[in-house]
Amino acid sequence: MTATATDIPLLSIKAQNAALAAELKEVVGRVLDSGAFIMGPENKAFDAEFAAAVGAAHALGVDSGTSALELALEAVGVGPGDEVIVPAFTFVATATAASVLGARPVFADVDPDTLTLDPKSVERLLTKKTKAIIPVHLFGQPADLDPLVSLAKARGCFIVEDCAQSHLAQYKGRPAGVFGDAAAYSFYPTKNLGAAGDAGALTTQSAETRDRLLVLRNCGRTLGAAYSYERVGHNCRLDEIQAAILRVKLKRLPAWTAARRRVAALYHAGLKDVPGLRLPPLGAGGTEPVFHLFTVRCARRDALAEHLKRRGVGCGVYYPSPLHLSPAYAALGGREGQCPISEQACREVLSLPMFAELSDADAGRVIDAVRAFFK
Ligand SMILES: Cc1ncc(COP(=O)(O)O)c(C=O)c1O
Questions:
Q1: Runs of H (alpha helix) within the chain
Q2: Pick the CATH number of 253-374 from 3.40.50.2000, 3.90.1150.10, 3.40.50.720, 3.90.1140.10
């Protein structure tokens, strides 16, 4: 079967942008007319609105989620010779954020149910050199933060939460992102909150960390000074146009999140009894995931992917290889069997269509197509 107009994509930002087109064009026009493109009123408003939305004391926009992770680690003092514990199963930026600061990423395994950082694996890897731990709330599933925070406190190291995929997720009644020393968000266009280009944000509960981040983000400038530099910094500022676009979309994020959860509930109801198919938890141990992706696992993953594509159902593999076996980290001597759950996940994961505008009828088609494979 070839692709048709009725195909169901894995992700879709077109429907979202089409519904908001008039408002988005208006705010972009407003910024163009203002001539204020850098660090203007849109940034200021976005920082306040985003902090309120994710329950953080402070937020600041930056130019990508990758920058957010790098600045967060730098702000807590990560540097050459330090170790940063990260999951082996995540997007590469979680680890490269440590590498670019001259620190060493140490790859821990993930929990078999949530595919997020396994505290027991982390505990085994802590050393005197461990400076930070990065729990990633992967696919919108909150990592098990309580034991990770306890470990960090006991060992005097920092927690930077990678919230690139988890806007508005909750862990035991509080928002993911407020448990660590800082949190990094991505607004890559396909994220739950997406810009029209690269963008990201940092949040923190500490005014001191916020001030350090403000300096690092803006070329090391002393706060309030144009040409006085108190440290070596970076230019990671968020463009005013992106901030304006994000403000329009942020208002819809709660409704979009509810819609994602609804699709996840439909998939669960339709697929939970399929033998050989493992589903992501709908909310285990007091967590409320936000389903950036709905990622199932199955031993015959590649055949399932082929079957779905033939039926016009989009799907994708996030991620095909664990980071300890990536050529980028060959020098660290990673070996097969080092993080067995992550390695198995890479062989078995398949993400099904997930976006707020996915209709019940299309979710039903996805369910039927998956069930037909297992018949
Ligand atoms: C888990 C995770 N961390 C970090 C990032 C980096 O974000 P960005 O693409 O905005 O740099 C991403 C985005 O792809 C991600 O999914």
A1: 14-19, 21-34, 41-54, 65-75, 93-99, 119-125, 145-155, 207-217, 240-250, 253-271, 301-310, 340-348, 360-374
A2: 3.90.1150.10
